[in-house]
Amino acid sequence: MTYCLALRLDDGLVFLADTRTNAGVDNIGSYRKLHVIDAGPDRAFVLESAGNLATTQQVLDYIHRDLSGDGESLATVSHLFEAALYVGRLSQQVIREHQGAFASALDATATFILGGQIAGGAPDILLVYPEGNYTRASDERPFLQIGELKYGKFMLDLAVRSHVDIDTASKIAIGSMMSTATANLSVGPPYDLGIYRPDSFTFEQLRIPEDSPVIAELRSIWEKHIVGLMNDLPGISAGAS
């Protein structure tokens, strides 16, 4: 399983992804799911992935192959929505190429969050579905999630607004990830954080390992305030109706 999220803010974009691909006492795998793609000096892209790992890796290989060719690529598209449609077509192409070999019960699809900026346009984030189409984040809901999204969504719903600064948004993102990892063993560290500031055309990247003091401190503060919240809630009398 996977959990990836992206936030679109006035100050820029925030991306966070876990790296766990298998889970169990003796079966834990780790692969990067946040990919920064260098497609030229006038554009910046991040691609987050969830779903079938083989499909994801082949899509990434095709993206990098096309960057060195003369046809359509992330280096030639003029708008972010065109980049999203391009990634969607590649994903569908991979599925078609291997469709005959897939077991009937196997889900070989992948879902992506594509974010970044092309010169002349605003930074944005788009969710690319296995069917090849996409949706955008909105001003009312300026975030996207893929993978195991239900446990961390409430943090984003409560706290994320477009005017939140990058530092606060990063903490919200990590809190959302921690909530998910606590509830689901199939999501876990290391975590990859990416930050994009408008018109910079470069990403700040940080890997947060499992033994990070930042994670330990955030977990301690989180647990302390959750316990405090429980203590502050009013009691429910036995005779209440």
Short description:
This protein has 241 residues and is an alpha+beta fold.
Describe the structure.
By secondary structure, this protein is α+β, with helices and mostly antiparallel strands. It has 5 helices and 12 strands. The protein has a 5-stranded antiparallel sheet, with helices on one face. Strand 7 and strand 8 form a beta hairpin. Helix 1 crosses helix 2 and helix 3 runs antiparallel to helix 4. The model has no long low-confidence stretch (mean pLDDT about 90).
Reconstruct the topology from this structure.
Elements: E1 3-9, E2 12-17, E3 20-22, E4 29-30, E5 34-37, E6 43-51, H1 53-67, H2 80-98, E7 110-118, E8 124-128, E9 134-136, E10 143-147, H3 150-159, H4 166-183, E11 191-196, E12 203-208, H5 213-232
Antiparallel strand pairs: 1-2, 1-10, 2-11, 3-4, 5-6, 6-7, 7-8, 8-9, 11-12
Helix pairs in contact: 1-2, 3-4
The H-and-E topology, N to C, reads as EEEEEEHHEEEEHHEEH
What Rg is obtained from the alpha carbons, in whole angstroms?
A: 19 Å
Residue fraction in strands = 25-35%
Give helix % range.
Answer: 25-40%
**How are strands sequenced across the largest beta sheet?**
10-1-2-11-12
* Total of DSSP H or I helical runs spanning 4+ residues: 5
**Distance between the terminal alpha carbons, to the nearest Å?**
41 Å
Major beta sheet, specifics? 5 strands, antiparallel
Task: Please mark out the parts with pLDDT under 50 across 5 or more consecutive residues, or reply none.
Answer: none
What is the average of the pLDDT values? 88
Envelope shape: globular
Pairing-aware structural class of the strands and helices? alpha+beta
Number of strands: 12
